[in-house]
## 1
Amino acid sequence: MLHTKVVDIKDKKLSIIDAEKFISSSDFGASIFFSGTVRNQNNNKSVTGITYDSHDALVIKSFEEIYNEADQKLKIKDKAVFIEHAKGFLNLGEISIIIAVACKHRDEAYVLSRYIIEEIKKRSPIWKKEHYQNNETDWLKGNPIQYEKN
Amino acid sequence: MKVTIELFGASRDFSNQDSIEINIENNSTIKDVRDKMLDYLHSNFKGNENFIKIVNSSVFCSKDNIISDNYKITNHEKIAIIPPIGGG
């Protein structure tokens, strides 16, 4: 069971309550909620907010692939997964990503939650532009998508 | 023929629009588009080294598929440049 969405922050904010509603089931004994939030420091600079950019179609496709891989790589068949990522300008403390997972047992839930966020970092086309106190901005460097050019 | 390149992430600094349009020969590939984008950066940003690095380290996609440098582009196809990523 999977829910994925890229949420334009102009329309709504990410909500842990939405995640809880989706994964809640008596089939599962362990739930983990991960949220990423905008922090006030990065690379010794005072950050005032972050603009998130997203290639929505590729992001959703990557979320689905990561979810399906959990079947094969992690052997976690029974699960509920909720993934939402924000796009647009977020102030300090606002939630940029929620990953909520529910599994039968806690070991699976911890492994699955960690797997999803690490894979998203590597594979999902999302970009961050930091805003600083001196009104400057900077796109963070990021990692190239691994793909055969030829 | 014309191709539209949608801009994402750091490549948004290449234009004040969401995309740029470039002219390419028939049967051009992504490799040719990459070269044309470098020409565009030389003409418009005096060969800004950071921008050149972005183009050289990016991949391209059509719809929701990452495409190789050998991919042949059709007339008026819309493709997107995918610079190095880092969300979460």
## 2
Amino acid sequence: MSETLIGIGARNGSRPVARRLPRLSALLPFRRFATPVLLVLGWQIACSSGLLSTRLVASPAQIVATGWSLTRDGTLPANLSVSLVRAASGLGLALVVGVCLALVSGLSRLGEDVVDAPLQILRTLPVLAMVPLFILWFGIGETPKILMVALGAMFPVYLNLHKGIRAIDPKLLEMARTLGLSRGRTIREVILPGALPDLLVGLRFAVGISWLMLVVAEQVNADSGIGHMMMDAEDFLRTDIILVGLAVYGLLGLASDQAVRALESALLGWRPVYRGRAS
Amino acid sequence: MNALTDPRPRGADEAGKAVAIRRLTRRFGDGPAVLDRLDLTIAPGEFVALLGHSGSGKSTLLRTLAGLDPVTEGTITRPRDVSVVFQESRLLPWKRVWENVVLGQDGADRRERAAKVLREVGLGHRIDAWPLTLSGGEAQRAALARALVREPQFLMLDEPFAALDALTRLKMQGLVSELWLRHRCAVLLVTHDVDEALLLADRAVVLEHGQIRTDLPIGLARPRRHADPEFERLRSVLLDALGVCDG
């Protein structure tokens, strides 16, 4: 009510101000992009004027041009698809193994004793430090790369789902018992849907980690993939190609994070937060 | 609230007991017995209110009857089809209201059955709602519907209105009374509220140190009124049994 009154007052008082205000507020969502755009402009100017050596860093325009030519000659799509397949297989493997282990250790005490301790010990090892060992074990083909991704991404899946299963409200489990639900049905209808939000949190971490693992795996002993493309470019001082690779990694991370978010709002429609966002 | 004045248990031919508890004893660790050789019978269709202080063993008794706690000493006989309504609605937030109501039930007509019982508790318009969007009273109505859809012979209510505001509680008490007159199942209502017990129950039992110390038939005609002198008298008796002075 008071807002309307103030609005009327402003319109009556000074017309130009009232007319300019809505236009400014329409620009407000874009204000966040002002700084990045300015930075890119400054970067371009610094490169064009010779302030920045293109041996150190290519200009934004050059990056776009290189990206386009790499796309047209098929280098980028070929390497991108190799990287995507690696990340997807690794992540898929991590999901399957992580979910299975979490179910085993989340649903039975015996399972927890058997599975949880070794995983908690393994978790404290930096997975990236195992690259040399993986190369020794599995050579330099696709296997060590996919396994690196899988190993790194498995832990967040396992840890979050395990936590989610263990954190199910015991009152809901009691209710299921009074309704006479069988063990299998309780797992299907109460435990798994209740742990799904935690699984999705784990999945988001896992997606982030799989790109990280992929970068390292592809920069050590690879003959294809975005990481290989970047390492190759290093030999020829092609900072533009390196930056194209970086941009692709960034976009891939962003896109996969959005995909998991979309999955969350699709699957967790019952949570008031997501209803609010959807409407 | 309801027109019937003399609620009799479902048919005179249904003799015997719906629930019989014989010398039920329960203790945790080496502590004193929470339930101490407790005897209680509930007739088919009878509405019994169970009162008592916190720690008097009310919850333990109800949990044992619901099959959530094991029977270690003594015996319990109860019908196969029982339902429990807890203080919290305990609806699964990831299932729509109607799916919660028929949780664990099979058959192609699940949705119709849910709809029918939801209409009965006055929640027919929220059949497809998500539980987290329900108010406290609506959620308890859904929990009641979930209990009733199983057509229980014995219904346990564990302080089902304790978390509701006073006006909603009055409405819910009316609803329970109505539903009981229609379904005629045996009911055990655990409550702290003496007035609630007097409004709803055929009999009020007071639990003390794990035993039933007071077993008070409530012969008031229904609908019951607070202003009734007999209501006042029974209220004093119950408060006295609970060790509260009715000033």
## 3
Amino acid sequence: MCGIVGLFLKNEALEPQLGALTSAMLATMCERGPDSAGFAVYGQSLDGEAKITLQSSSPEIDFPALAKALENEIAGAVKLTQRATHAVLTCRRDELDTIRAAVRRLAPSVRVMGVGEAIEIYKEVGYPTAVSERFELKGMKGTHAIGHTRMATESAVTTLGAHPFSTGPDQCLVHNGSLSNHNNLRRSLAHDGIQLETQNDSEVAAAYLTWRMKQGLDLGQALEKSLDDLDGFFTFVVGTKNGFGVLRDPIACKPAVLAETDDYVAFGSEYRALVGLPGIDTAKVWEPEPATVYFWER
Amino acid sequence: MPAIDLSTTPLRELNQSLHALAEGNNETEWEVLNPDGRHAVAVGIDAPVSVDIRGPVGYYCGGMNKQATVTVHGSAGPGVAENMMSGKVVIKGDVSQYAGATGRGGMLVVEGNAASRCGISMKGIDIVVKGSIGHMSAFMAQTGNLVVLGDAGDALGDSIYEARLFVRGNVQSLGADCVEKEMRDEHLELLEDLLQRSGITGVKPSEFRRYGSARKLYNFNIDNADAY
């Protein structure tokens, strides 16, 4: 089944409440996906800085020691913010590749969940409200956020199988449905040098969009192309640094509700997810049409 | 008149109170407040009562309804009035996919638009949609009437059996074995009655076109034996 929520703010005044609003939305979707949960939050980006979200499956990980070791590697500052099993490293943008390589070498068991100027990604196995409390989603600020509650169908219930999937800088995708041609696509993406971490179908969809955007398309155009190349059932919600997109397959049996006011665009798998949003009673509420790309950018 | 506030009363309590209504009871008008998109609101009623729901509901509202009149003053999620037996369900807003699915009787009136698969496998229900309906509507419809004042999406009436489909606007495409049919006097009379019962005025039955089964698909044809 799976549940999706998304909130793209147009009004800056709501940015301090992004996490609180998203966490309330996510909590309504527990029944749709009790296995695992995850969310991407797009926060303030600082000029010349980049963020790397790391995750460790072993509780003994000493993130502060890792950050120190990384500082030695680049002879510069690395800021660390740890939340449970995840940690966000902030470094200079031109040192990103050096840091990534050093993480792989110094802590091979640590996984990189996402990289970018604005994105932070948190996901774990567990009941969605417990996952969002663990990472203190409520207190997070930012411009847009996408969350997912998972009921696994295509691959195992693991942290890496949870959504969102991030396969490119500041990009993320969540998915409700199942793809039937993901193995073929995975092979052709690998041919073009795109390496995937899991056997999950949704990760292939994320990587497909990354691949298309690398070819110079914007998110809206990449989504348009995916209608030709992806086979299966899907409702996707995707994020970029400045953008927020929604797409349903032509059969459109996976549910989706959109709401828009002057202050925000919101997505929910069901209307229940939108009930707590400010001004929802007078918002424009509609179901996205099948095979139609919806895309907002600031 | 009982008013049940779902922000304070559990949904199950509301439905149990409605199921417990005995014949000849005096509580014939119910009001439901703050439904907030909850699923299965006012399902399985079997009493001649009216229930007014103030706000949007989630999945399966008014499902399996018998005798009651359920009105949603808002929009409804998937499967509204699913498998309705009799009575009436009225939605003031839009409805999601498979509205009125497998309904055996009664009337479903949608004042806004309906999404895909409206009236899928309908078995005797009358469905009147003032707006438009989505793709694959009346898929495998068996009997009953579907009236659409607006347009119909792709593959209307795919694999239809004997239901009658009346569309006033544009039909994007017809599904397998669904064809346009002649509008005879008996159909105009039937349509007049359906429009009147759903409270629609200013729309003439002659503005509609009728679609139904070509009856080529559901009988076994010996000439097609090689295909199996």
